[in-house]
TrEMBL record:
<keyword id="KW-0964">Secreted</keyword>
<dbReference type="InterPro" id="IPR033116">
    <property type="entry name" value="TRYPSIN_SER"/>
</dbReference>
<dbReference type="InterPro" id="IPR001314">
    <property type="entry name" value="Peptidase_S1A"/>
</dbReference>
<dbReference type="InterPro" id="IPR009003">
    <property type="entry name" value="Peptidase_S1_PA"/>
</dbReference>
<feature type="domain" description="Peptidase S1">
    <location>
        <begin position="1"/>
        <end position="233"/>
    </location>
</feature>
<dbReference type="InterPro" id="IPR043504">
    <property type="entry name" value="Peptidase_S1_PA_chymotrypsin"/>
</dbReference>
<dbReference type="GO" id="GO:0006508">
    <property type="term" value="P:proteolysis"/>
</dbReference>
<dbReference type="Pfam" id="PF00089">
    <property type="entry name" value="Trypsin"/>
</dbReference>
<dbReference type="InterPro" id="IPR018114">
    <property type="entry name" value="TRYPSIN_HIS"/>
</dbReference>
<protein>
    <recommendedName>
        <fullName>pancreatic elastase II</fullName>
        <ecNumber>3.4.21.71</ecNumber>
    </recommendedName>
</protein>
<keyword id="KW-1015">Disulfide bond</keyword>
<keyword id="KW-0378">Hydrolase</keyword>
<keyword id="KW-0720">Serine protease</keyword>
<keyword id="KW-0865">Zymogen</keyword>
<keyword id="KW-0645">Protease</keyword>
<dbReference type="InterPro" id="IPR050850">
    <property type="entry name" value="Peptidase_S1_Elastase_sf"/>
</dbReference>
<dbReference type="GO" id="GO:0005615">
    <property type="term" value="C:extracellular space"/>
</dbReference>
Length: 235
């Protein structure tokens, strides 16, 4: 893997065969035929995945549209209890995708690795630019500072809503993930310069996207390495 090993995937849905496609979630290409996203994104059977995209309004050379062959949601995911965690799903593509200048495989972190409080990572997506704001055409990226579990689980932050299999990042009231970023990656640079996807956008505050001491909350990928390996090997 190279330092460019992260590819953003866009997931689109539609409500009927005659309606148009629309953006629903982000994702990460973790193998030639597997995309990692959030379990809460899996609400629509009729979906397709766009890889190698930057501007959703343009037909871009090198981008691909691929159908989903199979969707596996984590068996402990409970849509009525978001705070329980396990907000992760894998989508098997109908065809394998060859890496290119625009499409690279995302690198997973080492199992059980924990980010240090104060580390700076980057969230990317086509989510809203602000609370109740517009959806952008171009892929957005924002730096987020990691907030350790000891702080994030304080009553004045997220309290018991946050679990150890989650990652908190942000909370400065300035930059955060927002509606539409769900399923997308939190990319962090390792000591060797390689980018790794440490988080999957899970949830934020109902009070707003850039709420002070309510950092964006991600599924911690390093807690699910074994599950990812098992699912991809058996499907």
């Amino acid at each position: 893997a190279t330092s460019q090993c992260h590819t953003m995937t866009q997931r689109q849905s539609r409500t009927s065969s005659t309606s148009g496609w629309y953006h629903t979630c982000g994702g990460s290409l973790i193998a030639p035929n597997w995309v990692m996203t959030a379990a809460h994104c899996i609400r629509y059977v009729n979906c397709r995945l766009l890889l190698g995209k930057y501007n959703l309004k343009l037909t871009e050379s090198g981008s691909l549209t691929v159908a989903a062959e199979k969707i596996i949601v984590h068996e402990l995911w409970d849509p009525s209890r978001l705070a329980n965690g396990n907000d992760i799903a894998l989508i098997k593509l109908s065809q394998s995708v060859a890496p290119s200048s625009q499409i690279q495989l995302a690198c997973l972190p080492a199992a059980n690795s924990i980010l240090a409080s104060g580390d700076v990572c980057y969230v990317t997506g086509w989510g809203r630019l602000q609370t109740n704001g517009a959806l952008p055409d171009k892929l957005q990226q924002g730096p987020l500072v990691i907030v350790g579990y000891a702080t994030c689980s304080l009553p004045s932050w997220w309290g018991s809503t946050v679990k150890t299999n989650m990652v908190c990042a942000g909370g400065d009231g300035l930059i955060s993930s927002c509606n539409g970023d769900s399923g997308g990656p939190l990319n962090c640079r390792a000591a060797n310069g390689k980018w790794e996807v440490h988080g999957v956008v899970s949830f934020g505050s109902s009070l707003g996207c850039n709420y002070y001491r309510k950092p964006s909350v991600f599924t911690r990928v390093s807690a699910f390495n074994d599950w990812i390996a098992k699912v991809t090997a058996s499907n």
